[in-house]
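Annex B. Sample input.
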Amino acid sequence: MSTTENFLPLNPDELDWLDRVLYERLDEEEHEDAEEGIVSVAELDGFFTALVSGPLRAEDVDWWALVWGDFEPEWENEAEFNTVLNLMQRHLNTIAATLGESSEEFEPLFMEYEEEGELFLSVDDWCEGYIRAVELAEKRWNGGGEAMRKLLTPIRAFSSQTNWRAHNRSSEAEFEQLSAALAPNVRRIYIYWRNAERH
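Annex B, continued. Sample output.
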């Protein structure tokens, strides 16, 4: 794969296929103590975004193992393995390139679902993925102090870390405000940590 192809954004068909790979690998039987890993492409996007935008580096993390948890698929062949690996690497590279070269264009990949004929965006999976990566190095993230805590608050509000507080204890106006803050806050988080590296 050429360098250019390594940074080629995934198209909708590739995203849909990767989403199915992440979800359909899970055993239908419940495993109470098992780690499911990442179960959707939106959660993967959030996870990769936190690795790219925070104090950790993606290359310092065994993200492949973390994605699958206890349920890495049984690959049909080496080609299938390489296809999935290349798609994930491309997506990670795309996020890094967007934040690094034109952060104002960065947008999270939220889940879209239909209810009574209307389309809605769900931000929960994305936020869950982001916080999953934050928890890998909570102490280092806490080094950002009160400013970082405030920037992470909207993301945490849509995750299990706060029992999805945005849904349970927010007015409609507060809910919209928290949702609208997600993308701008990620851009600010990225800038904060990249500036911190230079000092």
